[in-house]
Amino acid sequence: MNKQTIEKEQDIEQDVNPATEQETASADAACDTMTDGEATDADKVSVEPSLEEQIAAWRDKYLRLQAEFDNFRKRTVREKMELVERGCEGAWKAILPIMDDMERAVAASRRSDDVEALRQGEELVMKKFESILQNAGITPIECVDKPFNEEEQEAVARFAAGEDKRGLVIDCVQRGYKLGEHVLRYAKVVVGE
Q1: 177: which residues sit within 8 A by CB, 6+ positions away?
Q2: Please, which residues have CB within 8 angstroms of residue 146's CB and are 6 or more apart in sequence?
Q3: Is the separation of the CB atoms in 137 and 151 below 8 Å?
């Protein structure tokens, strides 16, 4: 580089940064006296609105999230209640035709004196009901002449029936039912001694 080029560059630098040496020195001294934790008033003004905005944004997000979770919880509780209320709807719909058959049987018994026909009607209604239970997976607990099982049966009486009937179920007072492997109702039985 030649001497003229260097002088032109120095002139340009002075035009761009017209600060005097005294101003530069006082600014350097002010920076040296300031500790790391301090900020000038100009810095504080520019930082505080930013922090307040961030705090407000986080607070808004928190409140929205809390409200959203509360709505989710309420909706879930409402859906569970509806499931409980309507959970047996299919079973009740399956039983309604049996009620219709029972109403027809009662009406027929009032008009008819044929006892045998009434018995056949009752048996048909009973078979229909048993088939509905079977389709739902509900099965009766068979217990007569079998060993007493406290997991499926409830002994309501003991009866002296001889040595060959000891520990066996002699009679079933009330039939028990299972849904799969789960006992819905225990069978009430008389056990031999």
Answers
A1: 133, 138, 139, 140, 141, 183, 184, 185
A2: 168, 169
A3: no
Q: Tokens standing for 21? A: 């040496």
Give the global pTM: 0.52
- Residue pLDDT, tens place only, 111-151: 888 888 888 888 888 898 888 888 888 899 998 888 988 88
CA distance 75 to 40: 52
What's the token pair of residue 51? 């922090």
Domain formed by 138-193, architecture: Roll (2.30)
Q: Give the angle 146-148-153 at the CA atoms, nearest 5°.
A: 110
Question: Distance between CA 71 and CA 3 in Å, rounded?
Answer: 78
Rounded distance between C-alpha atoms, residue 111 and residue 117, angstroms: 12
For residue 94, what are the contacts with CB-CB under 8 A and spacing of at least 6? 132, 135, 136
Pair of tokens at residue 39: 């900020």
167 contacts 191 by C-beta, under 8 angstroms: yes
Q: Letter for the amino acid at 148?
A: F
What tokens were used for 33?
Answer: 């006296």
* Contact assessment for residue 172 and residue 189, using Cβ atoms and an 8 Å cutoff: yes
Three-state DSSP at 147 gives strand
Q: Which helix (H) or strand (E) holds 98?
A: helix 89-111
- Give the model confidence (pLDDT) of 60-85 as tens digits: 999 999 999 999 999 999 999 888 87
